[in-house]
Amino acid sequence: MSILKSRWLKIDTEYSKRKIFELISTNTYTKESLAGFIDINHFENSIEATFVEQVTITQNIVDPFGNVTEQHLNIYNHVEFRFIGKDFIEIISPPRSIKSFTHFLTKTFKHQLFISALKIDLRMVLKKARITAQSVIVKKAKVSGLKVGEKGLASVEIKSVSDALEDLYDFSRGSNYILDKVCGQITIDSEKYEFEVSKLGYITCDEDLHHLMVDILVANNNLA
């Protein structure tokens, strides 16, 4: 099974899904524009495309005699993404920086589309997954805001061969904490799938599990 990584963003816009598709389609990448969208597809509940940006890197090459030659190299950054409805953007295999992508997207929508980080309620994700799956085992959990003594707060990461959340409950003695990241295994129809979800909207999972994770995130506003 292949592993799929994605990052989710929250969007707020008055544009309809049809208008979103029109604006994406009229801002395609060309050699002259240096930035734009390619591979644009419209589906019932999503719009998929790839953002391409040409970046020119200039470097100086010095030969053994001290002569300097300026060299220009064009590289192309790609961001594969999709609009899910008109509320979310999912970025597939997200690069380290998406600043150019979000800036171009905002410009495309004439600053009438607002993008923000998506915060996921991990407890709700696990709860919904357990409704569908045969079993959900959390092997690793990262938490913050865990009370230590009367005045201290701590961030900890717990690994377990059984269930990290049960071990965390015993360790915290019922104290409140913020669940930042969970890693584990979901069993569906006797097939086991690995997953990792962070509260900041990053998801890593087996590709065959991806549709379930999308359904859980979108359905019933299961987002913090």
Structure characterization notes:
This protein has 224 residues and is an alpha+beta fold. Helices cover 21% and strands 49% of the residues. It has helices at residues 17-25, 99-108, 122-132, 164-172, 210-218; strands at residues 3-13, 35-42, 46-62, 68-84, 88-92, 113-117, 135-148, 152-159, 178-188, 191-198, 202-206. Strands 1, 2, 3, 4, 5, 6, 7, 8, 9, 10 and 11 form an eleven-stranded antiparallel β-sheet that branches. β10 and β11 form a beta hairpin. The protein is globular and about 65 Å long.
Helix-strand layout with pairing:
Blueprint: E1 3-13, H1 17-25, E2 35-42, E3 46-62, E4 68-84, E5 88-92, H2 99-108, E6 113-117, H3 122-132, E7 135-148, E8 152-159, H4 164-172, E9 178-188, E10 191-198, E11 202-206, H5 210-218
Antiparallel strand pairs: 1-5, 1-6, 1-11, 2-3, 3-4, 4-5, 7-8, 7-9, 9-10, 10-11
Number of helices: 5
Low-confidence stretches: none
Q: SSE order, as H and E?
A: EHEEEEHEHEEHEEEH
Radius of gyration: 22 Å
Query: Largest sheet, if any?
Result: 11 strands, antiparallel
Strand content: over 45%
Mean pLDDT: 89
Shape: globular
**Could you tell me the number of beta strands?**
11
Distance between the termini: 30 Å
| Residue share in helix | 10-25%
Structure classification: alpha+beta
